[in-house]
Amino acid sequence: MMRILPAGIILCFSLALPCHAVLPLIVNTWPFRDATATAWKTLSSGGSVLDAVEKGCSQCEIDQCDGSVGYGGSPDETGETTLDAMIMNGDTMEVGAVGDLRRIKNAIGVARAVMERTKHTFLVGESASVFAENMGFTTEDLTTNTSFSIFTKWLQENCQPNYRQNVSPDPSKSCGPYKPHALPQQRRRHQLIDIHAHDTIGMVVIDQAGHVAAGTSTNGARHKVPGRVGDSPIAGAGAYADSTAGGAAATGNGDVMMRFLPSYLAVELMRGGADPSVACKTAITRIKRHFPGFFGAVICANTTGSYGAACNKVPGFSQFPYMVFNQKSNVPIQETVDCI
């Protein structure tokens, strides 16, 4: 007798797919439950996958998720908090992104405005902020007591740790200005890792019809060199979406991860038939081959509703938590994956 399953549930045993294959689906990095719930509410109330990604990520911007997303976190070397974000439409392959955004709290909203209100893909720095102001976004101070305290403590500790290398500070000022010196470059691959010092919400949303969108939002690396932009707003690095295959998003040390386009790689592997978990592991392994001590993780989902994640195992980080919401769970569920 033929068994009739509810719409969106795949006969996974006959297709050799994991039996969590259900649509619609929302997957996002880290245990940011409210962001997941907001995205699901948006989608279930008739919003598009782009709406769901934008609202979900903006919830994290409002909540200052883990101090690593939104205003009031990760001050740079001058004490200023700046934001990076991107959003991608997997149907049209359009992307909107902003980097080094100042004075505007809703970074993912500005990224979507870049996608829908310009023919460009990526705006950065002060010009991105002026664009946002012209589009009606409210200007606000992104500094808080918390971010100011982080910055002050860093100054008191002689501006350590920082992201400078092969430079020396002015002898009278331990925190610079910096000048290059003649020592050979040494790669700093074995630093103590603070997972809160560079982090992101990355989200993938797939609706009942298989439309895919992905997005990211972050305040970047704590104590970064002013002007630094990480992997989060770069299509294929921070996130990638293609409605013929699926979506992926990354989190972690963006200065390393952006060099390998892990989100793009994962989606291409899923296009070729790889299970999402395998696609994520392959993307992580590719980076690990060159930077074994990097901190990072990738989430993946394909257009059947299968999903997975992978992370690199480093001291103090052996499991990666991420959120899932589909009709099977009917609530935001935190899942974890063992790092490799």
TrEMBL record:
It catalyses: N(4)-(beta-N-acetyl-D-glucosaminyl)-L-asparagine + H2O = N-acetyl-beta-D-glucosaminylamine + L-aspartate + H(+). Transmembrane segments: none annotated. This is N(4)-(Beta-N-acetylglucosaminyl)-L-asparaginase. The keyword Zinc does not apply. The keyword Disulfide bond does not apply. Belongs to the Ntn-hydrolase family. The lineage of its organism: Eukaryota, Metazoa, Chordata, Craniata, Vertebrata. GO terms for molecular function: N4-(beta-N-acetylglucosaminyl)-L-asparaginase activity; peptidase activity. InterPro entries: Ntn_hydrolases_N (IPR029055), Peptidase_T2 (IPR000246). It is an enzyme of class 3 (hydrolase). Keywords: Autocatalytic cleavage, Hydrolase, Protease, Signal. Residues 1-21 form the signal peptide. Its EC number is 3.5.1.26. GO terms for cellular component: lysosome. It comes from Megalops atlanticus (Tarpon). The active site is at T200. Cleaves the GlcNAc-Asn bond which joins oligosaccharides to the peptide of asparagine-linked glycoproteins. Substrate binds at R228, V229, G230, D231, T251, G252, N253, G254. GO terms for biological process: proteolysis. The record marks D199, T200 as: Cleavage.
